[in-house]
Each structure stands twice: as structure tokens, then as C-alpha cells.
Amino acid sequence: MTAATTDTAAPSYDRMKAVKEFDDSKSGVKGLSDSGITSIPEFFVHPPESLSKLKPSSTAATLSIPVIDLSDLNSTDRRPAIVAQIKDAARTWGFFQLINHGVPVSAINETLEAIKAFHEQSQEEKSKYYRREEGRGVMYSSNNDLYRSKAATWHDALQVWMGPDPPEAVEIPEVCRGEVVTWDRRATEVAENVMELLGEGLGLERGRFKELTFSEKRLFVGLCYPPCPEPDRTVGLTPHSDSSFLTVLVQNQVKGLRVKHDGEWVDVSPVRGGLIVNIGDFLQIVSNGEYQSVEHCVAANSAEEPRISIVMFFNLAKWRSGSSNYYGPLPELLSPERPAIYRDFTEQEFLHNLFSKGFDSKSMIEKIKIPN
């Protein structure tokens, strides 16, 4: 006689249901952190083997991204040296940190505090801006790619599209409205200076990138990485390269940003008053591979204070016209000795690649690379 058995198997985990419930709550990761949870929801958990690959080695501990001093930027004595430094950093690291860039430390601190204040508002107040319409206006959400990624990441973000069609000022949350508008102006000034230097490093006329509208499409992102109860089981942001042309970033003093260099993950230590600049995929393509975008990620926050960062993404506003809007390596950088290594691509291709999947690294570059 066979003993009767009882089915005690636990019900299968419905990931999409859990994700939808989290999204519908509009409370974000900050809400989870503030609730006092001691373990993270399962859809935030990343495979241990992928997390172990993101840790800096003992060798990487001695490395740091280049720091470039922009003092006397327009002097005939200093400018050639600064161009050479930025060109080298853009070719070898894809990341560099600027000091003496013209933005007062007080303005940086005020902007960081304003974004922190936004994220510390009540769920009721922040939820007024919670939505998932990317590409325009003002949007507060957790994980842009929440429904496209394999695992969620431990951050929330306020996004404001500042150009070419900025929102009405009243659409920006009042707690950070003035700071967002002012930061857009300040970061754009820095970005345009850097674009000039990068252009000169390629032998282009001064102001060429601005003329081509690479500073006109602008996205302001104010990120909050709240303390995480299990920082070894998730990440703040997965490894990715930026699809944009150029990125300008400022962060508070809580560590987390990591950059991949020569196969090693390198911690980026905050420099008080410093601004971080990185090359995007679009600039790698436009420069015909002379400048390099690189993978970077953010570790889940193990500190007691939230990590706050502000990112300005700059990209093309006016595409080349033809049968469809398109772009590719700049013609003036090509020659028989230096042929194009990337094919032209359309605006539709670019946007589909950006919004059809989770964050990744250089997927657009790989798609348009011309085989040898």
C-alpha cells in the first residue's frame, strides 16, 4: 500500500505581478528603503555570478580616472595642453573629472540638496510626477527599463527634458525647480566647452559640435540611490554605456560609480566640486572610433545616507536629412587612409535600439560596425 502524498510545493513566483504592484505603488525604491525592509524583493536580485564580476580587484584600487584642470582654458599657453589631456582621456578612459570648470561649489551643493529634497518628499507628493512616458516633459519613476530588464536596480530618478523643447517651468517640481533650470544652463556651458576641446583634438573647427546641435537635446536626470538592506544581491545601475553624445555628472560624497578600464572595474572617488564627463556611444561613432565610450555601473548603496547624482545627457537635435533622418561618422574625419568604420544609421534605428531593451553596452555601435 502506497502512502498518500500531499502537494506542498510553494506557488511559483509571478515576477511580472510583483513588478506591476511595485510600479503601481509609485513609491519607488526610496519607499521600500524607508519602510524598513530587511530583504529586497526578488525581482531586484541579480545572479551572484554577474555581481562578482563587478567588484574592483586589488590592482584596480590603485587606478583612478584622469583629473583635468580647466584653469586658464582660453589662454594660448594652457589650451593646447588641455586639449591634449582631454583627447588622451577620451581615447583611453572615456571618462575624466574636471576641476576649475567655472561652476561654483555652492551651486553644485545647492543642486544636489534640491534633488535630495525632491526624493525625500512624501510618496503622495512625488507620485504626481510618476509616469512612464520617456522622451519628453517631466517624469519621476524607478528604473526606466523596469519592464524590459531581467532584474531591477536600486535607484529612483527624476527626469526633465530640457531641450530642444523644455517644459514650462511650472511643470518642474517646485522643490527643485530653480535649481534644475539653473543647472541646465551651467552644465550646458561646461559641456560646450568640453565639446570644443574634444573637437579641436580631432582637428575640427572650434564650435563645430555646437553648430551640429550636439548640445541642444538635453536630458536632466536627478538620481537617488537609497540605502539598500542587501547591497550584495543587487546593483544601483547595471553595466552600460551611454547612448548619448556626451554626459556631465555630479555626485555627492557617497561612493558607488564604477568605470571599466582595461578589463578592470575602477571605483570613481568623488572629488568635492568636481564634475565627471564621459564619452557616449554617439560621440564614438561620430569620431569614427577616435574617442571611446566605456562601460560603467553603480553599486547598490551600502552607506546609511542616500547617494545623489545629477546627470546631464547631451545629444543631437537636428539629424541629417535624406530619405530618412540619419547620421554616422563626420565626413571631415574620413579619408582613404582613415575610412569609416561605422555605417550611417537612421534616427528610427537609434531610438528603437535605445527603447526596445534594458540598459546595455555599445549595442548600437556593434550593430553598425563595418566588418573588416
Report on the structure:
With 372 residues, the protein is of the alpha+beta class. The protein has helices at 15-25, 28-34, 48-52, 79-92, 105-119, 123-126, 177-201, 208-211, 281-286, 347-355, 363-368, and strands spanning 67-69, 95-99, 138-141, 156-163, 217-225, 235-240, 246-251, 257-261, 264-267, 275-279, 296-299, 307-315, 326-327, 345-346. It has an eight-stranded mixed sheet with strand order 1-2-10-7-12-5-4-3. A four-stranded antiparallel sheet has the order 6-11-8-9, with no helix packed on it. A two-stranded antiparallel sheet has the order 13-14. Helix 4 (79-92) packs across helix 7. The longest helix has 25 residues, at 177-201. The chain starts with 14 loop residues before the first helix and ends with a helix. Residues 1-9 have low confidence and may be disordered.
- Quaternary assembly: single chain
Q: What's the N-to-C terminus distance? A: 71 Å
Instruction: Give the radius of gyration.
Output: 22 Å
Strand content: 15-25%
Helix/strand structural class = alpha+beta
**Sheet with most strands:** 8 strands, mixed
Going across the biggest sheet, name each strand in turn: 1-2-10-7-12-5-4-3
Helix content: 25-40%
What's the shape?
A: globular
What is the strand tally? 14
Unreliably modeled segments: 1-9
Order of helices and strands: HHHEHEHHEEHHEEEEEEHEEEEHH
The average pLDDT score comes to 94
Count of helical stretches: 11
